[in-house]
Write a structure and sequence with these properties.
Number of helices: 5
Largest sheet: none
Number of strands: 0
Structural class: mainly alpha
Helix content: over 70%
């Protein structure tokens, strides 16, 4: 990775991590910052041709937006509703578990849909590079977030 891009990403990560401490109403703004960071990171790591990029980004962005919605509207909502597991009845726990399973299925199906679509436009090697880039990006983002929380 070039020094210039690395420095830019580092500065963006630092700027983004300060934002995590802000209120929920700024969540959309942070999501956009993360998306910009992700685009820069993936562009550097995937070496997409202009034609591949033109087809890739609409597909990936739709996938990413859906996963974000599932997390926010699904998992976080369940987490917020489940305040005290110890006080929960078995029936309530079974209902929550069923909702969690349904969400996991939706996430899995979204991932499968992404793979089906990407196989039509990218070589397998680039799809594998994408999965690695996603994992690496998320690790770096969390590392910066944790670092800023400790400061």
């Amino acid at each position: 990775m070039s020094k210039k891009l690395y420095t830019t990403l580092l500065l963006l990560f630092l700027g983004l991590s300060f934002g995590f401490a802000q209120k929920h109403e700024r969540g959309q703004k942070h999501q956009e910052k993360i998306k910009k960071l992700k685009i820069a990171y993936f562009t550097e790591n995937l070496n997409l041709t202009a034609e591949e990029a033109q087809q890739f980004w609409p597909i990936y962005n739709a996938y990413d937006d859906k996963n974000h919605d599932l997390r926010v509207k699904g998992f976080y909502k369940i987490k917020k509703e489940v305040k005290d597991i110890e006080q929960m009845s078995e029936t309530e726990a079974q209902e929550v578990l069923a909702r969690l399973e349904a969400l996991e299925t939706q996430v899995y199906e979204n991932n499968q849909d992404l793979m089906r679509k990407l196989k039509k436009i990218l070589p397998a090697k680039k799809i594998i590079q994408l999965k690695k880039a996603e994992r690496d990006f998320n690790r770096k983002l969390m590392k910066e977030f944790r670092k800023k929380r400790r400061e």
